[in-house]
Amino acid sequence: MPNIAKERKMEKHIVIISEQLIPNFIPLYLNKEKINFVYIIATSQMKKKYEIFAQICSTYNWKCQKIEVSSYNYPEIIEKLNKHIPQEENLHFNLTGGTKMMTISAYEFCQKRKIRSLYVDTANQKILQITPEFKETPLPDILDLENYLSLYGYKIKSKETKKPEKKFLASIPELLNIVCKNKNFFSILNYLSSQANNSNNKVMIKKNSTYIKKQLSFLQERKMLNINKDTIIFTGEKERFFCNGGWLEDYVFTCLLELKEEIGIKDLAKNIKVVDLEENKNELDIAFCIKNKLYIIECKTTKKTDFESSKKPLKTDVDYLYKLESIKNKVAGIYGYPIFIGLHTSDNLIQRARSWGIRIISDKKLKNLKEEIKKLL
After folding, report:
1. What is the pLDDT of residues 350-367, one digit of tens each?
2. Structural domains in the chain?
3. Which residues of 288-312 are buried (b: 16+ CB within 10 A; e: fewer)?
4. 316 pLDDT exceeds 90?
C-alpha cells in the first residue's frame, strides 16, 4: 500500500515582506503542514522585518531564502524572480505586501508562470485567489497572542490567564460604588499601596489619620489590609497590588472572560510581559485577539493629587495614553486597537485619545463595563 504522506508533494510559498507581516503569515499558517520552503522577497529597508519573519519560518521548520529587490525597479524584480525561483509545481505566491510596483511585477510573473497567486483582504476578512482563476474564501480566525506578537518581533515571557481569586472579586463591587461617589479615595489608596511596595507592605499615615482609617475600614473587613494605630499593613503582596490599581485589571479581565464566547475572543491574558529581539521589555495590562486583530487595554486608577508630596512627579492619564499609543505601534501595528480604562476623564483626555485612535471607558460607565466593551467592538 503506498505511503500517502511520502507521496504528497510539499508546497513552496513566496511572500513579499513589508511593515505588516500578518497578511504574509496567515496563508502560511493555514498550510503549515504542507510547506517546506518559503521565498521571502524584501527590500534592504525591510531588513528587520525580514529577520523577524525568517525567525518565524525557523520556528515552523520552513526553510527560507531571501530575494532582495529594489522597491520600484520593475526589470530588476522580474529578473530576480526568474533567476531565483525555479519552474516547478506547487508554487504559491502571496501578492499582499510591498510597493505597487513589486505587486505588479509579482502578478505578471504569476501570469506567465501560471503560478497560483493570492491576496489577503484583511479589511473584509477574505483570502482572494487571483490566478489561475479568481476565488474568495473567508479569512479564518487563527491568530492568538503568541503568534500575533511574534509577528512584531516580541516573545511572551509570562502572562496570567486564570480568573482572579474570589477574595479579590468580592471587593470589586464596593470599589466600583466608590468610583461614582469619592474618587479622591483612590488617590489615597494608590499612594499608600505604592509607598508600601518597598517597605514590607507597611506604610505610615502621616496626616488625616482618622479620615483615612475610616475610608479604608471596609478593606480591613475584606482582609486586604490591617490598620494598627497609624500604620497600614497590607496582608500580602497580592493584596497590596490589588489595592494599587490591580483591582481594575481584575475587574476588566473578569468581564472579558465572561464575554469570551459571546464576542468571539480567541485568546486573552493579563499582566503580559514581553521582550523583543534585543531583549527590550514591555508589559501589557490586558490583551486579547478577535478575528486576527489585537486589542490592548491599559487600566489606570491613578490621578495627580496633593494628598501627599512626592519627589517623583506623578504621571497623568495623558501620559498613560501616550504610553498606550507607543506600545500599540510597537507590538500591534495597524491591526491593533488600544483601549484605555480609567476612573477619570477630561476634555483634554478625550481629545488626545480621539486623535490617537484610542477608545476610552471610564467614570460611571465602568459599572456597565461588559455592555461598554460590546459597544466598542
Report:
1. 999 999 999 999 988 999
2. 4-140 (3.40.50.10770), 160-376 (3.40.1350.10)
3. bbbbbbbbbbbbbbbbeeebeeeee
4. no
